[in-house]
Amino acid sequence: MLGGVRIRAFVLIELAVVAVVAAVAGVVLWLPDDDPRPAARPSPPVPLDLPGLPDATAPVLMPGRPGEPAGRAPANEVSPLAAPSYNNADVRFVAMMIPHHEQALVMARLVADRGDNAGLRSIAERILAAQEPEIKTLETWLSDRGLGRDGGGRHQHSMSGMQSAEALSRLTAARGAEFDRMFVDMMAEHHQGAIDMAGEVLVLGEDNIINELASGVVVEQKAEIVRMREALTTT
């Protein structure tokens, strides 16, 4: 009987010990919200070194307006440009103006060997200097848009001011004052045709590049018509 009492007492002692251990463990695991101890902070992320990524602050070349130098700006300050818009009127103008300019170059190259008028020779040199680069600009405009010189074959229109093969043959055969007179008449008509074409695209076109080029055609070729006629009357 005494032995049974001792066993029950021993069991009670063991249960008490287990309860104390559990209580201590609960205190350790439970931390109240107002615990004065600072919470552990996560370590800051280590920046990744990824080779080959572009520098967002690298300078970007910013094209200037015609006659102005290009500028530079950080890449992260440059907004992507929207694709320029154009329409059939722009394409028609470019596709026709290329051969139109090329015929003007043919006539201008005849002046040095056939004409007598020094003023006309100077004007012819200006025509060559201006219209050769413009042809390159027009060709680039087409190629940038995946178009050929024929404008995709959709813009076969008559070109105002273009001279016939017979008229060019007569101009080539002429010399001296006769050549000068024929050249002024033919080139003035040719220039007026370009002015008419430019006026059409200024009304119907959408592309800013073509708008600027057409505006220049109107101003320059009107002035050249006046200069050619003045040069012819001063000899």
Automatic annotation (TrEMBL):
InterPro entries: DUF305_CopM-like (IPR005183), Ferritin-like (IPR012347). Keywords: Membrane, Transmembrane, Transmembrane helix. Gene3D superfamilies: 1.20.1260.10. Residues 39-48 have a biased composition (Pro residues). It comes from the Bacteria. Residues 36-74 are annotated as: Disordered. Residues 90-232 form the DUF305 domain. Residues 63-74 have a biased composition (Low complexity). The chain crosses the membrane at residues 7-31. This is DUF305 domain-containing protein.
